[in-house]
């Protein structure tokens, strides 16, 4: 397993439910370290750019509307196999299909409002971390 970083976003539904701390504990208990963090309210332009791979999908506008509906908490996580480990902690995109004990099973209500985002590959993690965090804001071991 490679030592790597991944980008995580706690989406507006989970921020509104006041479960940032509970979700951070999942990361920490799994051995992932939070090396950068920022709360922000995304602009429409930022959300459209971040999710541009989905721009032709029927759910794109709803996804962007949801991501700008309230503040989000954005973090870079670091650790052994961080990308896959975070995806395992998150659970399936649709919370109805997410394994018991995953973040989405425990905190998400629907496929639209599904609590968290996590990079799906190490290459995308590098791009997504660069999108939100200038190198100077990342705290190394
Ligand atoms: N069929 C769908 N209907 C509505 N929303 C969807 C659908 N598929 C995906 N989405 C939304 O778009 C987001 C991005 O889709 P993607 O397939 O990349 O899922 P994911 O990788 O599990 O989620 P994320 O990219 O947020 O980590 C999902 O998190 C979800 O909120």
TrEMBL record:
<dbReference type="InterPro" id="IPR036850">
    <property type="entry name" value="NDK-like_dom_sf"/>
</dbReference>
<feature type="binding site">
    <location>
        <position position="87"/>
    </location>
    <ligand>
        <name>ATP</name>
    </ligand>
</feature>
<feature type="active site" description="Pros-phosphohistidine intermediate">
    <location>
        <position position="117"/>
    </location>
</feature>
<feature type="binding site">
    <location>
        <position position="59"/>
    </location>
    <ligand>
        <name>ATP</name>
    </ligand>
</feature>
<keyword id="KW-0418">Kinase</keyword>
<feature type="binding site">
    <location>
        <position position="104"/>
    </location>
    <ligand>
        <name>ATP</name>
    </ligand>
</feature>
<feature type="binding site">
    <location>
        <position position="11"/>
    </location>
    <ligand>
        <name>ATP</name>
    </ligand>
</feature>
<dbReference type="Pfam" id="PF00334">
    <property type="entry name" value="NDK"/>
</dbReference>
<keyword id="KW-0460">Magnesium</keyword>
<dbReference type="GO" id="GO:0006183">
    <property type="term" value="P:GTP biosynthetic process"/>
</dbReference>
<comment type="similarity">
    <text>Belongs to the NDK family.</text>
</comment>
<dbReference type="InterPro" id="IPR001564">
    <property type="entry name" value="Nucleoside_diP_kinase"/>
</dbReference>
<dbReference type="GO" id="GO:0006228">
    <property type="term" value="P:UTP biosynthetic process"/>
</dbReference>
<feature type="domain" description="Nucleoside diphosphate kinase-like">
    <location>
        <begin position="3"/>
        <end position="140"/>
    </location>
</feature>
<dbReference type="GO" id="GO:0005737">
    <property type="term" value="C:cytoplasm"/>
</dbReference>
<keyword id="KW-0963">Cytoplasm</keyword>
<keyword id="KW-0547">Nucleotide-binding</keyword>
<keyword id="KW-0067">ATP-binding</keyword>
<keyword id="KW-0808">Transferase</keyword>
<dbReference type="InterPro" id="IPR034907">
    <property type="entry name" value="NDK-like_dom"/>
</dbReference>
<dbReference type="GO" id="GO:0004550">
    <property type="term" value="F:nucleoside diphosphate kinase activity"/>
</dbReference>
<feature type="binding site">
    <location>
        <position position="93"/>
    </location>
    <ligand>
        <name>ATP</name>
    </ligand>
</feature>
<keyword id="KW-0479">Metal-binding</keyword>
<protein>
    <recommendedName>
        <fullName>Nucleoside diphosphate kinase</fullName>
    </recommendedName>
</protein>
<dbReference type="GO" id="GO:0005524">
    <property type="term" value="F:ATP binding"/>
</dbReference>
<dbReference type="GO" id="GO:0046872">
    <property type="term" value="F:metal ion binding"/>
</dbReference>
<feature type="binding site">
    <location>
        <position position="114"/>
    </location>
    <ligand>
        <name>ATP</name>
    </ligand>
</feature>
<keyword id="KW-0597">Phosphoprotein</keyword>
<dbReference type="GO" id="GO:0006241">
    <property type="term" value="P:CTP biosynthetic process"/>
</dbReference>
């Amino acid at each position: 397993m490679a030592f790597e970083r991944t980008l995580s976003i706690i989406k507006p539904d989970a921020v509104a439910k006041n479960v940032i701390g509970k979700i951070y504990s999942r990361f920490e208990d799994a051995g992932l370290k939070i090396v950068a963090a920022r709360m922000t309210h995304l602009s429409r332009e930022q959300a459209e750019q971040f999710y541009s791979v989905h721009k032709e999908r029927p759910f794109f506008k709803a996804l962007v509307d949801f991501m700008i509906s309230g503040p989000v908490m954005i973090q870079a996580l670091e650790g052994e196999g961080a990308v896959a480990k975070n995806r395992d902690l998150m659970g399936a995109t649709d919370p109805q299909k997410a394994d018991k004990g995953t973040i989405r099973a425990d905190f998400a209500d629907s496929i639209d409002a599904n609590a968290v985002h996590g990079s799906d590959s190490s290459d995308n993690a590098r791009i997504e971390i660069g999108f939100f965090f200038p190198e100077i804001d990342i705290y190394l071991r």
